[in-house]
C-alpha cells in the first residue's frame, strides 16, 4: 500500500494556519469547563423521570447486544468461502460440492441450489460478499453491470430499518413526557449521534469493494475471503450498543448533577417561582378551609361550644374590664349547619339514605385531618 509522507514543515504550516483559530477556542472551552465544574450543585440521587429514560436505553442495550452475538437466531450463517475453505477463484462446482458434504445427507438445500445458479461470475461473488445471499438471489431488478442496484435493494431493510428503530428508541428515551426535562435536553444531540451512525453505515456499504478492499492474499487466491455482509450484520447492533451506553452515561451524569450541569433558564426560574407560590397559596387555602371546618365542628358540639364561649368571654373580660358580664361575646350568629334544610339532609346521610359511603367518608376525613394537623404537636 502506498503511504503519504508528511514533513515537519507541513505540520508547522498547518499549525501556523489553524493555530489562531483553534487555540482561542480551546482556551474558552477549558475556562467554561472549569466554571461549570466550580458552579455545579452537589450531586443528587437519580430522579424518577431520567430513571425511566435509562431503563428504556438499558432495554435497547440488552436487545442490540443479543443481536450482535454470532449464535443468536437471526445471525447470518458463515459465508460459504469460510465454511468450505475455498478461495475467491475456486470453481463454483467445487465450492458447492464441498458445501454439500456439510449438509445433512450430503445434499444441498433448495436455498443452496438457488444460490449456486446465481454464483456464475466474479461480480456475483462480490455481491454475495458485500450484500449477502438474499440480495444475490431475491433481487429481480438488479444487474451485475450496475452493482448499485444491489445497494438500493439492500439499504431499506438491512440498513435504514435498523437505524430507524434505533432512532425511535433514542426519541422515546429523550421525550419530555416520558423522561422529563433532564433527558429531553439531549434529544437533538442523541438524534444527531444516531444519524451519524446511519451515515457511516451507508457510506461503508456504498463504497466498500469486496475484491479491491480485500487483503492481498485474498486477491491472490491464497486465503478464503471474509465478506463484509457477515461482519457488519453483527457489528451494526454492536455499534448501537456502544452508542446507547455512551448516551446512558451522559444522561446519568447530567441528571445527577455530576457533570454537564446546565443552570435553569430565566423562564424556568420564573415558572418554578410561580409554581411554588401557587403551592403556598393552595396550602394556605387548605389551612383556612380546615379552620372553618373546625370552627363549624366546635359550634355544633355543645361541650366544645361552651368551652369556646367561655374562652371568648374570658378574653372579652380581660380586654374590657369595665364591660358588664352579660355583654360581649354572648350573641352567637346562626350557623349554616343549624339551618333546617341542612339539618334534615345531614339526618338522611347519617341514616344511610343519602347514597354516601360513610366508611369511605370517614377515611377521607381522617386523611384530611392528618394533612391539616401535620407537624402539630
UniProtKB/TrEMBL annotation:
Q: Which organism is it from?
A: Penicillium camemberti (strain FM 013)
Name of the protein: Str. FM013
Q: Which domain of life is it from?
A: Eukaryota
Membrane-spanning residues? 14-33, 53-71, 153-178, 190-208, 228-253
Q: What PANTHER family does this protein map onto?
A: CHORISMATE SYNTHASE PROTEIN, CHROMOSOME 10, WHOLE GENOME SHOTGUN SEQUENCE
Q: List the keywords (alphabetical).
A: Membrane, Transmembrane, Transmembrane helix
Amino acid at each position: 500500500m502506498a503511504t503519504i509522507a508528511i514533513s515537519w514543515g507541513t505540520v508547522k504550516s498547518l499549525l501556523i494556519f489553524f493555530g489562531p483559530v483553534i487555540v482561542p477556542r480551546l482556551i474558552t472551552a477549558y475556562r467554561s469547563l472549569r466554571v461549570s465544574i466550580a458552579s455545579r450543585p452537589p450531586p443528587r440521587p437519580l430522579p424518577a423521570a431520567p430513571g425511566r429514560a435509562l431503563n428504556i436505553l438499558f432495554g435497547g442495550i440488552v436487545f442490540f447486544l443479543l443481536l450482535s452475538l454470532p449464535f443468536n437466531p437471526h445471525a447470518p450463517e458463515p459465508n460459504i468461502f469460510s465454511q468450505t475453505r475455498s478461495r475467491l477463484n475456486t470453481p463454483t462446482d467445487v465450492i458447492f460440492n464441498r458445501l454439500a458434504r456439510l449438509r445433512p445427507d450430503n445434499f444441498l438445500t433448495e436455498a443452496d441450489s438457488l444460490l449456486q445458479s446465481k454464483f456464475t461470475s466474479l461480480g456475483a461473488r462480490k455481491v454475495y460478499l458485500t450484500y449477502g445471499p438474499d440480495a444475490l438471489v431475491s433481487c429481480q431488478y438488479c444487474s451485475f453491470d450496475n452493482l448499485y442496484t444491489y445497494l438500493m435493494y439492500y439499504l431499506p431493510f438491512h440498513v435504514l430499518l435498523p437505524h430507524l428503530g434505533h432512532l425511535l428508541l433514542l426519541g422515546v428515551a429523550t421525550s419530555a413526557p416520558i423522561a422529563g426535562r433532564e433527558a429531553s435536553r439531549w434529544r437533538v444531540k442523541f438524534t444527531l449521534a444516531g444519524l451519524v451512525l446511519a451515515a457511516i453505515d451507508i457510506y461503508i456499504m456504498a463504497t466498500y469493494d469486496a475484491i479491491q478492499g480485500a487483503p492481498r492474499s485474498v486477491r491472490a487466491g491464497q486465503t478464503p475471503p471474509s465478506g463484509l455482509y457477515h461482519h457488519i450484520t453483527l457489528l451494526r447492533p454492536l455499534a448501537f450498543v456502544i452508542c446507547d451506553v455512551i448516551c446512558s452515561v451522559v444522561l446519568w451524569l447530567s441528571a445527577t448533577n455530576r457533570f454537564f450541569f446546565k443552570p435553569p433558564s430565566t423562564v424556568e426560574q420564573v415558572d418554578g417561582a410561580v409554581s411554588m407560590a401557587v403551592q403556598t397559596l393552595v396550602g394556605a387555602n387548605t389551612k383556612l378551609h380546615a379552620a372553618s371546618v373546625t370552627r363549624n365542628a366546635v359550634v355544633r358540639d355543645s361541650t366544645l361550644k361552651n368551652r369556646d364561649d367561655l374562652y371568648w368571654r374570658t378574653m372579652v373580660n380581660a380586654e374590657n374590664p369595665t364591660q358588664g358580664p352579660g355583654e360581649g361575646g354572648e350573641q352567637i350568629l346562626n350557623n349554616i349547619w343549624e339551618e333546617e334544610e341542612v339539618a334534615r339532609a345531614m339526618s338522611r346521610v347519617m341514616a344511610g339514605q343519602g347514597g354516601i359511603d360513610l366508611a369511605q367518608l370517614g377515611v377521607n376525613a381522617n386523611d384530611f385531618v392528618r394533612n391539616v394537623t401535620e407537624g402539630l404537636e
